[in-house]
Amino acid sequence: MTTPTVLPHVDAVTAALEGAGLTVYLGGAPQDVSPTDSEPFVVLYPEPGRPQAASLADDRTAFSAVVQLTCVALRADQALWVSDRSAAALSTVLAVAGRVSWKPESLDGQPVKRDDDVTPPCYYAVSRWRLRSIPQ
Questions:
Q1: What are phi and psi of 4, to 5 degrees?
Q2: Would residue 26 count as lying in a domain?
């Protein structure tokens, strides 16, 4: 049995968000991209995750990771709308190849913030989600 990895889990989150009609970037938005009224987006910041023992045999086939979703828009209400849409997209069991996963667990978030260091100024809504899976 192979050790579980984070990338298939991140791919499953990306697919769920894109399936909800959202634009998704991994690890940051490209330099030439900024949100528009019609195109807010989500940036995923996943941690590497960790294999965990699935039994007393210490087989390390279970997996757990946390991914941060940063919803970016021109207005605060748009950032919250993207956050709500993201939460709805993650309210189901994710399809991770060769794995049985739990529904993502909402951990916490941060208040919506305005960033005046970018042009045009943007708003951010941040939430963190725990991902878990075991082999099929």
A1: -70, 150
A2: yes
